[in-house]
Amino acid sequence: MAKTFNEIEKMIDLKSIDFYEYLFSIIPASLKIILLNIAKMTDIYLFSGLIRDYFLEKRGHRDIDIVLEKQIDIQDLFLDFPIERNSYGGYKILCEDMPIDIWCAKDTWAYKFQGVFDFYIGVNIFQTAYFNFSAIIYSLNEKKFYYSKNFLRFLRDKTIDIVFPVNKNYDLCIINTMYYSAKYKLKVGKKLANEITKYYRNEPHDFEGVQKKHFGEIKYDQHAIEEFIKNKKFLTPAST
């Protein structure tokens, strides 16, 4: 893996076309047709786990997160598939065997509840990511990645940290820190460690509820969560 920011940027940019081809090799043919039709109406941005796993060379990610720049009738485009509302105005769709979460940009939490952007909303969504491994998006229309130095640091240091400290579900942030640090053998940055420790000590929690909703099962009991928070071995120096 490249070590300097310039080397990592070049590596990311060189993979833009490869990612496009990879995406269309793993999605159902019906979804490919729908996305190409949507791309004629508005800009499409992919974000979150699919991109993270691609750059960590962990293939086999099975769900897709999408933001659309303009308001369009999503339900009309996915008439043949199970569709329901997800959090804050988006849609959860099962396209053949592939789960999709899709939002119009002005329906995202960052826009509706934080008022983060007034223009070019979709392309700036990565700046509202809680974790640095999500500080990147892919423009399907342009076949191009947009990202910040936070994502470059993540690839360089293999350390999870905070980008945008405001989140609608801090319990899930704690659980995801545990899950992804273990699954991908990633370090946890000092800023993130301090934030989740502070939140854990000062706020009420529903760890069972968020795990059942997110994973469909309870992966960590209360004892495991307490041990994770107390175990200072998971702390690493703050990113620079």
TrEMBL record:
Entry keywords, A to Z: Membrane, Transmembrane, Transmembrane helix
UniProt name for this protein: Poly A polymerase head domain-containing protein
Organism, scientific name: Treponema denticola SP33
Source organism, top-level taxon: Bacteria
Presence of keyword Membrane: yes
Transmembrane spans: 20-39, 119-140
